[in-house]
Structure prediction request, 562 residues.
Amino acid sequence: MSGNEAENLLRRLAPQVLGALVRRYGHFDMAEDAVQEAMLAAATQWPAEGIPDNPRAWLTTVASRRLTDLLRTEQARQRREETAARQILPAEWLAPAADAPIRRADDTLILLFMCCHSALSPASQIALTLRAVGGLSTAEIARAFLVPGATMTRRITRAKQAIKDSGLPFAMPTGSERAQHLAAVLHVLYLIFTEGYAATSGTGLVRADLSAEAIRLTRLVHRQLPQDGEVTGLLSLMLLNEARRPARARPDGDLIPMAEQDRSRWDTDQIAEGVALITGALSRGSPGPYQLQAAIAAVHDEAATAEATDWQQIVALYELLLQLSDNPVVALNRAVAVAMVRGPRAGLDLLAPMQADQRITGSHRFHAVRAHLLEMAGDRAAARTAYLDAAGLTASLPHQRYLHAQVTRLGGDA
Amino acid sequence: MGASRKETPVKYMILIYASQQDYDSLSGRPGPQQPAWSSADFAAMGTFMESFNKELAESGELVDTKGLTAPVHARRIRLGGGVPVVTDGPYPESEEVLASYWIVECDSFDRATQIAARLADTPGPEHVRARAAVDVRPIAESRHELEL
Prediction:
């Protein structure tokens, strides 16, 4: 078998093995290290010696042994330093279980909930999710986020310590807590996807591995919760965006705006799957923000040409989205859609009051959109200034190059 | 007492003990205090345990037998300032703690002792056999029996 097959199998098994270990022995932090070491052992042994008959059992055994070793070392150290690891039991452990039947939930989902715990910063949630559930090594995650390995190691170590300190039990949260946790998980998956889709820094426009990983993890959640509209919406949204990836950049890495993309290069399988998912979800009633964003992406993806885009429908969807949350990025996108329906001045009118909103004026997107609408309205000088403003606000080289190209195209003095 | 009276079977618990260091050497890791078990020793013990348990099951005397995972995985809960406090890994490396138990149901303490004696003779490295101890204790089936 190829090393690649072994790697895919390993990554799929990683959260299952970690879940089994934490469920049986506790110690999320050390169990996670133990699973990483077991995966490393497998990655070197399996391609050479063949996959064992029961790879999951193999990994669980090796990881359990490693966990025992890690615990011994830790406990010996604590005894030397007379710092017994004592932990006060959470109060709810002492009360009889009030909630009805304890259903054996999927371990992967519980792990995701742990990794996206509110005690962690978003950066830590992302890193820990990729490692504990995604099965990526610390070095791989560090590369994907363009930070030194040591930085990522510290980030993950701190994240695990925070989970340990929080005393979070290995169990599926219930009721409203569960909904909150799920929302946090979806947000983290969304961040991983967007990080891969439009890298915030560095030279590569798309770090495809992160996008693919986000889609894989979202599929995992979707398999567990197929009836959840927002999970379905997020998966659909990712697929519909990912479908355009082959057409998003020129071979030299420069960005191509959607209106100029070669639509024959869009991935029709991904579009078909994304459209089917969102259509099914929308038919089940009151859509949340991911479903609405997916619906908007579907309208774009289904238009044979840029001119054929149903902007009326997109405006309507953005208005629904704005009712759900006061998000300046959504307001910005609505302004674009309105400009496409009623002309650039109508779009600029919507942008005017946003000039005071610092949440958006610090983003290159705001100035790029303004530049684009100004140009459509025939005000080339103002458009040029706005493009320059935008270029000064993005750390992404492809974005900078695109925006500077617009400045050059509009000419005039530097 | 009539000779025909059938003895009521009684349950006994047979217990064996091991320290974390014993678990380590059993798993093949040499330690400062004792060498690791050889493959031959390990295999001989496995064969012995298998046939021992099989015989007990066939005679109908075996109620249950289980081994416990390494002592490092233990948690101890005690009251600290009135609230339960958990300590992970409460045993020193050399402390012998319960490692396996058998519950047997048989006619007499003597028969249970006979069974336990076979366990005391489990094959293994000489330094382990020299220290090995097996305890047998009658199980109290009711509170009444505890008050005897």
Notes: Helices of chain B lie at 20-26, 39-58, 109-120, 126-131, 143-146. Confidence is low (pLDDT under 50) at residues 1-5 of chain B. Residues 39-58 of chain B form the longest helix (20 residues).
